[in-house]
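tool_call: predict_structure(chain=1)
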Amino acid sequence: MSQCHDTQTNKYYNEGDLWSSAYSDCKLNTCVNINGVLHVERYSCPVITKNVDFDMMRRENYFCHHAWGNRNKAFPFCCPSLACRHYVKGRMMPLPKHMYPYKKIES
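tool_result:
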């Protein structure tokens, strides 16, 4: 067997290939070799609240919520995301992505 068969797409893939398909329950698929046998592995979307700095969100008065991804699109565009807004001169406006309240990753 030199290729993986994905029963969800009914297609064959080479070792190392990455794919996703619409209506795949938002997963990234890959063909991997485990002890000489090729397998399809599936990876789900990351948990979006895992790296949110809730203290910063409260301190900066940001209003954030869990926004569902478009489940008709392929990975990663189908994944949920964080959507934030804040007040600018008394009006609620979208928060620029670079200001999102994510925890700093320490190296």
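agent: Residues 88 and 94 are 9 Å apart (CA to CA). Proceeding to next step.
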